[in-house]
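Why this split exists: single-chain examples teach little about how molecules sit against one another. For that reason, every record in the complexes split bundles all components of an assembly together and asks for one structure covering all of them. Below is a record exactly as it appears in the raw files.
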Amino acid sequence: MEARDLLDPEKLKLKVKRRRKIDKIFSLFALFASLLGLLLLFAFFISLIVKGASWLSLSFLLGTPSRFPEKAGILPALVGSFWLIILTAIFSIPLGIGAAIFLEEYSKKNFIARFIQINISNLAGVPSVVYGILGLAVFVRFLALGRSIIAGSLTMSLLVLPIIIIATQEALKMVPKTIREASFSLGASQWQTVRYAVLPVAFPSILTGIILALARAIGETAPLIAIGALSYVAYVPRSPADPFTVLPVQIYTWVSRPQKEFQDLAAAAIIVLLLLFILLNALVVFLRYQSRKRVR
Amino acid sequence: MSNKAKKTFPFFSSKLRERAIERLLSLSSYLSILTTILIFFIFLVESIDFFREVSIVEFFTDTKWTPLYKPQHFGILPLLAGTFLTSAIACIFATPIALLTAIYLSQYAKPAFRNLVKPGLEILVGIPTVVYGYFALVMLTPLLKQIIPQIKIFNALSAGLVMGVMILPIISSLSEDAMTAVPKHLKEGALAMGATKFETTLKVVIPAAKSGIIASFILALSRAIGETMIVAIAAGATPNLTLNPLESVQTMTAYIAQVSLGDTPFGSIEYKTVFAVGFLLFLFTLVLNIIGKLLLGWKQEIY
């Protein structure tokens, strides 16, 4: 704006008006952009339900994969996913919480602690397929566990560990210092303080982090493909040593087939997967709500 | 020591027990270092094995990638091109939308709107990627085919666009954090001078939040490069040295998935390619992640 325009009230008014208009248009544009992602998601879901809902039935949930789409079901994949999640939880939760407690409550803030911290945050960014290759070399081959549920869940544990550690650390950081000091002043040891003062307070947020990590594990496909989870499993796995498939791998198998019926089956299986996913997320929302109520 | 604790560990003296617990906890945190060492060790050993049979020069200059059939060629360039192409499409699509979102949420939106949209967007990152793959192949590609008839069934464009939807929240969420963290007095100074919100955003907020915004972009790019299922489902399995988004391409990750699904015998050269490609992928994402984290770390020291 030139200086002499400022002296002319009419021109000035016009300029300000124009600048306000630009601001208004921009804000509408930005509003649209911020809703675009959610709108796309919504459109996806609608067409997903249109394609898949009619295939959902009890026989679909309880059946085994088949060459004939109308007979195909997802029971082995569901059971496989279930096994995988349970074992992953057993392996990763104690280790993850333990590591987080050590880093937050025990270790001095020295070079090694900082190194571990950076290392964990880098591990959280490693592509999941890389964990799959690692699992293939270490668990499937070196430890000779084969392409079993146990190898799959160990691989998955490595993948979710950094997520659990970081979430638990955040939860521990939220615990007020005064609680620790009160515990120490009563003569409690470090571990007693952690166990009876810090962990109960942090528990709801830790649980939230764990559930989100396990939700991630339920949906992961690439690492399991890399360790060689079978794409066709016609029977329900009975022990952790059995070969297996999981829901996402089953979906991948069906999506990759050219026939429309199988792609619709994939849509039905995706609905089931997303329902599980939504259930876990709802649990998180509920827990957050509960813990907020308790603090008040 | 409490009674409860005495019952659990009657044999240990309190001090011994404390030390044992600390040791146990420290071991679990060292596991993360072990994981990193394992990744480096295994990938290095297998990659060195691979490069005994294939020269590094061939690996980086040959323009064909055909390890699974004769005549075998081991030129990584087509896979790199595929990875670059799909990630670039994703970033080009996601970045403007994500930045506008971040600007709207941090500068214009009412708190209630923000508290609704932000978690909603963050759900997008959590959706299993195989689901995105389905969206790309079954929904977006037929749609694109109607607009651009010559597009292949498996193509980089569809996979890239859907990948863009996936990484959108990474950019918007981190950028919004960076924009919200801009000191209030800078913003208010501009507003007090009569600048509109748009002008303030453009000339004050964005320059101040620059490093956070760049970091969000880099971390999203890293995620796009490492993404496997979307490209494995929708971009195809033809290593193709092209930058044409309508063509079918294969990314590094999709190649790894393809080999894993086949019956590749352990120890064969095809098996080793997975490690060489995986190592390169790991290094790419590691470097990007470190740059991104460094940028986020510097953010606090600017003012």
